[in-house]
Amino acid sequence: MTHASETTNATDDDSGFKAAGKGNGNGSGSGDDGTSHLLSTDSLPSWLTPVARAARTIQPLQLSRFLPPESGAGRQSAVLVLFGEGERGPELLLMERAGSLRSHAGQPSFPGGSLDPEDGDPRTDGPLHAALREAEEETGLDPGGVQLFAVLPRLFIPVSDFVVTPVLGWWREPSPVGVVDPNETARVFTVPVADLTDPANRVTAIHPSGHRGPAFLVESALVWGFTAGVIDRILHFAGWERPWDRSKQVPLDWRA
User: How far is Cα 5 from Cα 256, in angstroms, rounded to an integer?
Assistant: First the structure.
């Protein structure tokens, strides 16, 4: 599932993602009632402590001004924000859409997708089940090796009508991953957190519509949109962000 048609921003502009500051709104990153039995922070590596701590306290409006409609409308979905540990230290799992797709071809994203009925209640543990199921279907990931430790507040993508729950996981027991369906996915890859925090790899993506948002030039890919916005906020609230030149811009085209 790729949400990158919605550009995001590390500043408070029309793209939706917010700068740091005191947020307002309901909910926190600890999840709704009913999800706690599927979440555990036991035995997490010490470097993940800042992420888990931030997820417990971050408010929806500290992430984005686009929040789920109060009416409950929207296509319920979830993404798996999976942290592992590779040769270069902490890393994130991403995938890249196939270049033959009509929309957002070649665009990186988190594994994820819409909730299915068998995933359960979208207000409780449904997003957790969906995030793991979609990750397995898209990357071949073994869900048994993943420890879910937090969820971020649900966010809304107006253009696609998705209500997205970012589910945070620790890749406790790494398993082989790769392209499951080449018609949908071009590649599955990991990105070292050190590369994501490197100011040399950070840019502002500019869409022809005028939307601006944080982006990352990593692993021969431009990570932007919803995915980049979530990564940007995690880096910030975990205290991992390093000062970077926001005037360094990369233009997007209308096909993005």
Answer: 7
Beta pairing class for 108-109 and 112-114: unpaired
Angle CA(31)–CA(21)–CA(213) in degrees, nearest 5? Answer: 85
pLDDT tens column, 19-45: 443 333 333 344 444 445 899 999 999
| Residues 144 and 173 sit within 8 Å (Cβ to Cβ) | yes
pLDDT of residue 101: 60
Looking at the DSSP assignment, which residues form a beta bridge with residue 82?
169
> 105 and 116 in contact (C-beta within 8 Å)?
no
Quick one: tokens of 3?
């949400």
pLDDT for 93 equals: 98
Query: In terms of pLDDT, which residue wins out, 34 or 110?
Result: 110
Whole-angstrom Cα distance, residue 25 to residue 15?
18
